[in-house]
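To whoever picks this up:

The parser on our side crashed when reading a file containing two proteins. I've narrowed it down to the boundary between the first structure block and the second sequence. Both blocks are reproduced below exactly, byte for byte. First block:
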Amino acid sequence: MGTAQQIEHAIAGSGRRLTGPRRLLAEALLTLGDHFAAEELLQAAPGVGRATVFRTLRMLQESGLVCQVVMDDGRTVYRLGSDEHHHHVVCSECGAVADIASTRLEKALGAIAVETGYEVDAHRLELYGRCPECRAAATAQPS
């Protein structure tokens, strides 16, 4: 996802009107960092209502352009992402988020559905741990 026009196209393609506030949100999304809280998006788009921010985030999640990540402290952040299904690994120290796309993982989740007899409609998976940079920094510190 690289441009506000792509985000605007996704909004329009969802059957919703491309209002002025939604245009502002599309532009503001591109100014935010790798992952951001809804409050940060609200601040980046002055004059846009809180409800509009959350409705637009939900709409973009449904279209696959924004994904939601639950941090290990329970905070919810969002990030522009691919519309391919994926999971996340989250650093519990610095908050870095990396995407995981694993066919082996998807097969295991499919096997769980078969074993339990559930027809799984959706799932989300976040793994938590320390990223390579935080692990390296911890081992480099003198004791």
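<<boundary where parser fails>>
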Amino acid sequence: MDTISNFYEHLVIDHINRKCKARDLKLDAGAKQDIACLALNQLPPRYVRHRIDAIFFIPDDERTQIDSNIDKAVSKAIDKVSSNPR
């Protein structure tokens, strides 16, 4: 069962890293994990066996929508974590 994963996890982590760099945010690993959890809980689960196959078979319009949904979820999560530091 090691091959089953939530398709969104890697995408969310990539978005978090890009947004933190673009905003020049210096967050520790715990804060980034909090952001990932908050963002993933806003998105529907999408389990796949092979991530690369899932990416290949998603139509462009659906991929655009997925990216938009992830962007919104990550932005909202970053704002929440940034406004409530530990």
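After patching the parser it read the second block fine. The longest helix spans residues 60-83. The longest strand covers residues 5-6.
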